[in-house]
């Protein structure tokens, strides 16, 4: 069942109110636009039939006008032959053709009024259709914006983010364990004895003495 029952309903409709009351505004606006487009096609088709009917009537009027001329000639011929009875009959046929032509002209005038009404309806329907399409674009933009916000929130606060950070926690625990193992290797090592420390000092003195000797040798060779 359609939202609107006739063209006047569409023209009088408040699209904003319809959307405010709708549970699904996006679906409602699609239905509104579809029905407006269908109604516009029907009104244009009706206008096309009216124009075609008018053209056919005008052709009939032209034929009737030629027929009237023909009956006039026949009446003149009958009078020239002193046949007033035939002339009168011919003029009666001419009158019938004239009446038919006048009737068609009246119908064309009525159709002109209907055509002007259809033209006005088409203009109003097009205006409403533009309004509906503008609102559809606005609704679509709002929906896309809302969907993007949802995606961002899911990205920052969703289970995938929690899962990623939990993996970071696992890696950090592995790193802590590796560092702990390295530190544990030095635990329990025996302290150096006094002899070992003194021996290290003697070795350091020997190295320093040898270094000084090398420096002196190098300086003397440069001076010589």
Structure description:
The chain is mostly helical and 224 residues long. The chain is built from 6 helices and no strands. It has helices at residues 7-12, 15-21, 25-80, 84-157, 159-185, 194-223. Helix 2 packs antiparallel against helix 3 (25-80), helix 3 packs antiparallel against helix 4 (84-157) and helix 4 packs parallel to helix 5 (159-185). The radius of gyration is 53 Å and the shape is rod-shaped. The model has no long low-confidence stretch (mean pLDDT 82).
Task: Produce a short descriptive summary.
This protein has 224 residues and is an all-alpha fold. The chain contains 6 helices and no strands.
List its salient traits.
224 residues; 6 helices
Write the layout of secondary structure elements.
Layout: H1 7-12, H2 15-21, H3 25-80, H4 84-157, H5 159-185, H6 194-223
Low-confidence spans: pLDDT under 50, at least 5 residues? none
Shape: rod-shaped
Radius of gyration: 53 Å
Helicity level, as a percent range?
A: over 70%
Q: Could you state the order of secondary-structure elements as H and E?
A: HHHHHH
The average pLDDT value, as a whole number, equals 82
Largest sheet: none
Count the strands? 0
What fraction of residues sit in β-strands?
Answer: under 5%
Task: Give the termini separation.
Answer: 118 Å
- Tally of helical segments: 6
| Structural classification | mainly alpha
């Amino acid at each position: 069942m359609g939202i609107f029952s006739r063209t006047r309903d569409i023209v009088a409709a408040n699209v904003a109110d319809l959307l405010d009351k709708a549970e699904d505004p996006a679906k409602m606006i699609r239905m509104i636009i579809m029905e407006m487009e269908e109604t516009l096609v029907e009104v244009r088709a009706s206008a096309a039939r009216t124009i075609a009917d008018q053209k056919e009537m005008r052709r009939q009027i032209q034929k009737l006008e030629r027929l009237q001329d023909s009956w006039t000639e026949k009446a003149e011929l009958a009078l020239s032959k002193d046949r007033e009875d035939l002339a009168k009959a011919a003029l009666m046929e001419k009158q019938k053709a004239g009446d038919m032509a006048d009737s068609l002209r009246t119908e064309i005038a009525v159709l002109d009024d209907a055509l002007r009404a259809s033209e006005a309806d088409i203009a109003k329907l097009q205006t409403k259709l533009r309004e509906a399409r503008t609102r559809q674009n606005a609704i679509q933009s709002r929906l896309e914006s809302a969907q993007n916000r949802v995606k961002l929130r899911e990205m920052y606060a969703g289970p995938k983010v929690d899962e990623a950070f939990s993996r970071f926690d696992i890696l950090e625990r592995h790193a802590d364990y590796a560092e702990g193992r390295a530190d544990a290797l030095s635990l329990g090592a025996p302290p150096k004895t006094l002899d070992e420390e003194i021996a290290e000092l003697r070795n350091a003195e020997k190295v320093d003495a040898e270094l000084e000797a090398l420096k002196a040798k190098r300086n003397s060779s440069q001076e010589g």
